[in-house]
Automatic annotation (TrEMBL):
Enzyme class: oxidoreductase
Species assigned in the record: Virgibacillus byunsanensis
Protein name: SDR family NAD(P)-dependent oxidoreductase
GO molecular function: oxidoreductase activity
Stated family: Belongs to the short-chain dehydrogenases/reductases (SDR) family.
EC numbers: 1.-.-.-
Length: 264
């Protein structure tokens, strides 16, 4: 058990499934107190019951549509009011739709930026004064390797995650003298229901199935680094290595991996 998590209250957005669910599980397993946010309150309550029975711990559930500014603002204020101190915020909720730019639907563009970027920024801004007041906290933003290397059919999704990286890096610099940590998590493809929306035909998943990350491994890794001064978590390692080569030799990298980039 990680002693630095015991009795720490940690907000997790998009907690009802996928990576968020596994993050919540490992927080509870290590003595932390998950504060779970999602639209599906039934899924949250089912998860709450399981972890409470398994780990004999306390957890909290809040229903919210993160794309609704009023709902998000109300819930964040409610959490701060109801809890003397919140120790962490993991901005995990996100969505992706893979389309060529010529085919993209504007409602998909707006949805990705509303959830991936604006909700993340808004929630962080609302909780930041609370963390600074207590001189303690950890903000973890789930970005993506796509934010470092854009590929065909991921223009909008990659743009949204590039925005998350920029926001996260600036936030870290702004509060680097305070006892509030800021971490970006850059992931390759993870085996979750994310692809039900991003890749409804399933072709991309078939092409990259052997390379997909396990959601439980990702959740465990994120929780392991909570309340440590970890700048970035990059998974898988070889994809992060590729992003570094891409920064140095972009033209050659695109030429070599042209076929792989078009697998979507």
């Amino acid at each position: 058990m990680q002693s630095n998590l015991v009795n720490k209250k940690i907000i997790v957005t998009g907690a009802s499934s996928g990576i968020g669910e596994r993050i919540v599980w490992h927080i509870a397993k290590n003595g932390g107190i998950p504060v779970m946010l999602a639209r599906s309150v039934d899924k949250l309550k089912s998860l709450q019951q399981v972890i409470d029975e398994t780990f004999r711990t306390t957890s909290f559930v809040y229903q919210v549509d993160l794309q609704n500014e009023n709902e998000l603002t109300t819930v964040m204020k409610q959490i701060v009011t109801e809890h003397e101190q919140v120790h962490g915020l993991i901005n995990n909720a996100g969505v992706g739709v893979f389309d060529y730019i010529k085919d993209m639907q504007w409602q998909d563009v707006e949805r990705m930026f509303q959830l991936n970027v604006f909700a993340l920024m808004r929630g962080t801004q609302q909780l930041l004064p609370h963390f600074l007041k207590h001189q303690e906290g950890h903000i973890v933003n789930i970005a993506s390797q796509a934010g470092k290397i854009a590929t065909p059919k991921s223009a909008v999704y990659a743009s949204s995650k590039h925005a998350v990286l920029g926001f996260t890096n600036a936030l870290r610099l702004e509060i680097n003298s305070d006892n509030v940590y800021v971490t970006a998590v850059n992931l390759g493809p993870v085996r979750t229901n994310f692809f039900a929306t991003a890749d409804p035909e399933g072709d991309y998943q078939k092409n990259i199935d052997r390379y997909m990350l396990d959601a439980d491994h990702v959740g465990k890794k994120i929780v392991f680094h909570l309340f440590t001064r970890k700048r970035e978590i990059n998974l898988p390692w070889w994809m992060e290595l590729g992003s570094k080569f891409y920064q140095l030799f972009p033209k050659g990298f695109e030429w070599i991996l042209n076929k792989q980039f078009k697998r979507k």
